[in-house]
Amino acid sequence: MFIYIIRRLLQMIPVMLGVILVVFLIMQLVPGDPAVMLAGEGASTETVERIRHQMGLDQPLALQYVQYVADVFRGDLGTSVRSSLPVSKEIMIRLPITIELALASIFITVVLGMLAGIISATKPYTKSDIAIMIIALIGVSMPSFWLGLTLIYFFSVKLHLLPVAGWGTWKHMLLPAITLGTSGAAIVARMTRSSMLDVIRQDYIRTAKAKGLKDRIIVYKHALKNALIPVITVVGLQFGVLLGGTVLVESVFAINGLGRLIVDAIRMRDLPMVQGGVLVASLIFVLVNLVVDVLYRYFNKRIKLD
After folding, report:
1. d(CA 293, CA 175)
2. 8 Å CB contact between 140 and 183
3. Digitized pLDDT (tens) for each residue of the chain, 306 residues in all
4. In angstroms, how far is CA 25 from the centroid of its own chain?
5. CATH superfamily name and code, 94-299
6. How big is the chain by its Cα radius of gyration, in Å?
7. Which end of the chain is more exposed for a tag (fewer CB within 10 A), N or C?
8. CA–CA distance, 228 with 214 (Å, rounded to integer)
């Protein structure tokens, strides 16, 4: 296990290099000059050129990329063009908010999704099964920003039960977490139902029923554990999707998280901030995938970690 984890961590290096390269090249296509934005629209040409030289923007793109990668390996993500603060400092301020939102959303995704999937699988082709699958289909198809605005309208504007925007208490967290977790819960519900139906048809489940075990023990102790492998995959991927989905949700609910920070940085053509934010988000996503692979081994001892 230890050797496998070390090998996977080493494999992350080329992935991160690729992420940096893709973001770096895309940002070169974005209109605008960071030096002009930093100097101001009325700045002289000499001032702009001096700032470009200080930022290294007058160097060839290949050299800029190599220099940035070298800085990253030293732990330096650069300085924000917009705020003149270290990128790592701004990210560490915003990142905990995004992680809290993602964890709350994934909790809703797992609890609602697996509960709905288990109920649907234990009562296949009944009215409850059909109703759950219809709701899951609606949840998958519903845009997160539309759901967020709808929840704000009913629970904040009309009923005055929850705050419209901001962050700080569980009340602020509730609506954004539901907005992010709904589509994921629908996907997990469909996957749990499919996996549970496959497991329930196995011979050892029929044997357990023949021995007189209670349905609750059969479902939660025997069937669910063996049905979790594909569900874990979906949950791991959904965590990455949630990190990306926070960009829209944080904008809708005016949450100062990592997603909103990246959006503001793109608007201001703050290249160091965009690269640093995307790099951190990608690193978290890769680490989550590593955790998912390790959990495979925990839930199914027959799986070999190659």
Report:
1. 31
2. yes
3. 677 778 878 888 888 888 888 887 887 777 766 777 776 667 777 887 887 777 777 788 788 888 888 888 888 888 887 787 888 888 898 888 888 888 888 898 888 888 888 888 888 888 888 898 888 888 878 888 788 888 998 998 888 888 888 887 888 888 998 988 888 888 888 888 888 888 888 888 888 888 887 877 877 777 777 777 778 778 877 777 777 667 778 888 888 888 888 888 888 778 888 888 888 888 888 888 788 777 776 666 656 655
4. 23
5. MetI-like (1.10.3720.10)
6. 24
7. C
8. 20
Measure the CA dihedral 79/81/84/90, to 10°. -60
- Whole-angstrom distance, CA of residue 237 vs CA of residue 260: 21
Which pair of structure tokens corresponds to residue 15? 């992935």
Amino acid sitting at position 275:
Q
Query: Phi/psi of residue 109, each to 5°?
Result: -60, -50
- Angle, CA 248 vertex, CA 83 and CA 181 arms, to 5°: 130
Give yes or no for a contact between 144 and 180, defined as CB atoms under 8 angstroms apart: yes
Tokens of 3: 């050797």
Residue bearing tokens 């290249």:
271
- Going by C-alpha positions, the residue among 102, 74, 75, 73 that lies closest to residue 89 is 75
Give dist(CA 150, CA 138) in Å, integer: 14
Contact 284, 243 (CB under 8 A): yes
The Cα-based distances of 195 to 101, 115, 199, 210, 215 in angstroms read 28, 13, 6, 22, 17
Rounded Cα distance between 251 and 247, Å, is 6
C-alpha–C-alpha distance, residues 58 and 50, integer Å = 10
Question: 201: which DSSP letter?
Answer: T
Q: Look at the block and give the residue holding tokens 């469909």.
A: 190
Amino acid at the residue 196: M
In whole angstroms, give the CA distance from residue 242 to residue 250.
11
